[in-house]
Design goal:
This protein has 7 helices and 8 strands; from the N terminus they run ααβββαβααβββαβα. The protein is α/β, with parallel strands linked by helices. The strands form 3 sheets. It has a 4-stranded parallel β-sheet. Strands 2-3 form a two-stranded antiparallel ribbon. Strands 6-7 form a two-stranded antiparallel sheet. Strand 2 and strand 3 form a beta hairpin.
Length: 182
């Protein structure tokens, strides 16, 4: 999960999003059924199961969004969440509200920032590498996100960088995070 995989293309991102295929409430219900089974099996093996949100679930559904449908129909003690802050925001969610709403289930975050000026598009789960900027240089309100995550008890934070210059961005991101007074 924490590894930087270089060379991801837009096509690879699109294929990844299409494999999950949460496009309507029925898809979320099918995923929830599968997640409950997998989470139960994981628990039986001494493991935990967490779903990594990616933005495409942030479209309207009867419960609010497809993410809300998924959450409502999964076992809150077994199906946990990893919030991808960049993709949740880019896909139309407020990451702070998402973390607060599902606080007891948020165990980890992907920390990545969305370039200022890049449009928020409900339901998008992909972005080009140039939309990725060092943490603190983009649209995310990091102090608010991190306070919410800490209050929720999230214990794992992954700095993720899928830009064309991860070696340049990651040190800037780490420096910014170190500078925060939370």
């Amino acid at each position: 999960m924490a590894e930087r995989k270089s060379g991801k293309s837009k096509k690879a991102h699109k294929e990844k999003a299409e494999k999950v295929n949460l496009r309507e409430a029925g898809d979320a219900l099918k995923a929830a059924e599968t997640f409950n089974k997998v989470a139960s099996a994981a628990e039986g093996a001494g493991l935990r199961f967490a779903y990594h949100c990616h933005g495409y679930e942030m479209v309207p559904s009867p419960e609010g969004t497809l993410f809300d449908t998924l959450a409502k129909n999964t076992d809150p003690k077994r199906v946990l969440f990893q919030v991808d802050v960049f993709h949740a925001l880019h896909g139309g969610a407020n990451p702070v509200d998402l973390i607060n709403r599902y606080a007891s289930r948020v165990t980890s975050l992907h920390l990545k920032d969305l370039k200022k000026g890049v449009a928020i598009v409900k339901g998008t789960g992909i972005a080009p590498p140039e939309a990725d900027v060092p943490i603190g240089a983009g649209q995310v309100d990091w102090p608010a996100v991190l306070r919410a995550a800490m209050k929720a008890g999230a214990s794992l934070y992954y700095v993720e960088d899928e830009s064309a210059d991860p070696w340049g961005h990651i040190p800037q991101s780490v420096q910014y995070l170190k500078s925060l007074k939370l």
